[in-house]
Amino acid sequence: MIQDLFALIFGVTVTVFIYSFLWKENPLSRAVEHLFIGWAAVYTLASMYDAALTQGVWGAERIEGGNYIWIIPILISLMYFFFFTKKYFYLYRYPVSIVVGIMAGMMICGMIQSNFLVQIQSTARDLPLVGAGVWDWSGGSTGIIGLNSLIVIIGTITALTFFFFTWEHKGAFGVSTKIGRYFLMATFGAAYGSTVMARISLFIGRLRFLYETTYEEPTYLVNAWYIIPIAVICVIIMALWMRSKPEEKPPEPAPAPKPEKPKSKG
Amino acid sequence: MSTSSIAKIDRRYLYILLFIVVSIPLLSPLKLPIPLGEHAKRVFDKTESLTAGSVVIESFDYGPSTRPENYPQSKDHLFHARELGLKVVALAFWPSGAPIGEEALREVYGSDFPDIPEYGVTVVYLGYVPGAEVGMQTFADNCATAKGTDHYGTSLPSLPLMQEVQSAEDFDLWAEWASGTPGEQQVIQFVQGRHGGPSAVPIVVGATAVSVSGMMNFYISGQIYGILNGLAGAGEYEFMLNVKYGYPYEQGPSLDAQSLGHVLILAFIIVGNIGYLLTRSKGGKAK
Fold first, then answer.
1. What is the pTM of this model?
2. What is the mean pLDDT of chain B?
3. Which of A23, A65, A223, B227 is in Cβ range 3.0-4.6 Å of B39 for a Cys bridge?
4. Which B residues 201-220 touch A at CB under 8 Å?
């Protein structure tokens, strides 16, 4: 289908345009950025609108089927639009407070249970100083599980002491903060490594799209990489055009307002 | 090369070098060996342990920006589920995940999806379920309340598979393909935490590599049963499927490219640090 061919050409072109940002920020890369943000916003809006209708209006168990209870959430959500009026702005606060209240209630229970209690439980359970496996450092099939727990406990406590500024970081407390700093550095290092891995994966995904995607018809075949030179030529023309244009000077900062003189009495 | 010239290398040369190094294995695969990680193996083993007819949730909670990592993970797992005769309820708590989920289902169940005989019996696609965390919790409590119809407008109670499953307890595995919020943490908090814990709602996650280090504590505590770590995790999973079911192993060149890319970045880091240390030892101000 011709739409597929168009999608292929468009996909390759915008990919090359967006990567031209690595050379220098230019109107083509900026245009694609804006296009992406605009499209994402419109797509999300349309999906939400469609979901609201599917969720509350259409269907046997919704308003269409006589279940009028669904009018209440729809009316509450429509109150968001009072944000745009000065007179009834206060009504906008009702849906916001309902959403904040529900989320706070849900989050507090969920977070304490899964992110706090279960984490402490799991660390304490595997600690070799308590429970059935006292001094059993083998940790069964998983190896040095007890040692892992000890490292987690030491790391948590020392990293927390690093952010404790009431006492000066000296003496035994200073040693603790220093150890905590090493734990934090190791954590950031691991996060950095993962980030590099993720970014390269995304780059590989784009390259595979450029190298492997094809559009096939009985009489002809279009490989995605056929389009790359055309897109690159567009970027080069843009580069030449930018070079020929005199560089725009950044606008001068507005002068700071002069402090008002105190009015003299009398 | 003097120390100052190391510091002054134009970053664009590094980009070109990375582009060349990553392109080589994509154009001519090196077929480097794949060491299978424990995380991916646990996802595979958990799925294998399910008996035919068990119900699996496939939640497509990602967008186009992380597609290169998440799409192969989710597609491979869908294939695995189909191969084992598992029943699949697919959905997305992200609006942008809905079309991607449909695409994966079409690729695995055939381009005629959902006009296939097994639709509604062994596989259902609910599409986008609105409400993010609230939607997730509502779905876990009562599936039909969270969404009245499937992605194609069919009422949920009229689908035989949805008559079998009412809430999270009725699912045998929750496969979460995630790259943000709502994602695996919200499933743990609002689904698993409220419905009997890890033994009642086992979760396997396919995540972007950038977020895996943040979820390791949930993995160690057993709240997450297994993790597919980015593209590498997808490659490992695909390799296991290839060995057992002859599934096409497409991620080989990507993993080769990733390995070479990492080696190059390590080299950049080493060279950069040498430059930094030399500049500092000569009394210069390191930038």
1. 0.87
2. 92
3. B227
4. 208-214, 217-218, 220
